[in-house]
Amino acid sequence: MSLELKNVSMQFSNSENATLNEISLSVEPGEFVCIVGASGCGKSTLLNLIAGLLKPTDGEILLDGKKITGPGADRTVMFQEHGLYPWLNVIDNVKFGMKLAGVPKEVQEERAVHYLKMVNLLEYRNYPIHQISGGMRQRTALARALTMDSSVLLMDEPFSALDKQTSNKLREELQRIWMETKRTILFITHSVEEAVYLGDRVVVLSADAKKKPHIMEIGLQRPRHVYSPEFVELRHQILEEIRGEAI
Amino acid sequence: MSIVIFLCLLIGIWQIFYWIGVDVFAVFKPYAVPSPLGVGQRFIELCSDGTLWEAVGNSLLRGVAGYAIAILIGVAVGLLINHFKYLQKNLKPIILGIQTLPSVCWVPFSILWFGLSTQAILFVVVMGSAFSIAISVDNAIKNIQPIYIKAALTMGAGKRQLYRYVIFPASLPELVSGLKQGWSFAWRALMAGEVMTTSVGLGQTLIMGRDLADINQVMLVMVVIIVVGILIDKFIFSVIEKRLLMKRGLWEGQQE
User: Domain range for residue B104?
Assistant: First the structure.
């Protein structure tokens, strides 16, 4: 078992109602799980809890059987805003996590090049961050996340700040990369289409914290097609569920 | 280029004013009004007997020494008030308060403590700039985008790594402008200290001008103080600042 949430609740001190109420979920190694919900349903809070950037008011989160107490390299996060460092060029950004972990220089180089190739960015390796596009920045962030040998990759709406075309392209590539690397990925999104496209399972989080999250198996074969009848049906079903919930 | 022409124009007007006011109508006493020609002449005299260079050299040396001490103290205090909530809450307001005290007000205290010595001047310089540096270190760290820290934490950064690889480089551009401001405070405080004490330096040359009732020398030293200040800003701080910002694509007018 890779990641396990046991009755996790979260209530911020400045609010009357719980943001998350007794959420339980387990993510198997190599699984791709998407969490989808209207804005304000607490999905980013949930990710921050798993990342260890917040502490739950109740319940516990286990990673490979060990309780999470703070942020760590075993749960690398890819953020909506890339979180790259503007004083480093592309490849040095990719190496950053490995540098922190004390990985030998040659290994850093080798792995950075490997993952830059995987995200099709090798020729931009020496570019400063401000000279590459938003999509390329997210590719860089993805390569950086992949270099970490994390048990689970947490993705917090990584493509939602991008234009539709770029985000479609990137989610195709993310699927390909996931099929190649078999990483465990927990992916947060507000786009139902993205969730159904990427996830083995989709967790539908309701804005009403009292309602239990609905977990759906997406049995569709990969690569998936957004216009296939089954895809449209699943997407419609989830949309109906969270309809009118946006805060 | 246009600023050079403008300066020449101003100096021309100044000289004409002098001719009309002093030479033609004698409205003003000659010893009360400096003239460009008089200042230029004094410049040549003080250059050729070496007085001016010695004064500039001494002042710069003192300024740099005091400034270096101010940086050490300022950065240390800045890091401390940034790191400890207790100090942030209780010490920072006091530092902000002290910062409102003009540096010349430290001179009597300093003279009583150290006597009429170089240490007394250095003390005034340090007090004049260390606190502004401390405040800007604190602010520079506070203004770091939280995502830089968050990203590093989720990649397993420890406390020291966080400071070395994220907080330091991320705050660097703002740090440099804080240090630049610290230097201008140091330079002003230095002049306050030098005017009040007697060691050889620009401040003392300025006071000598007053004692000799030589307004051209007074004017000359004032101009030199301004020019040295501008040169250091332009050729040291602005260059570093520009380079840092260019590298990050933050320089105004830079091509994306």
Answer: 50-247
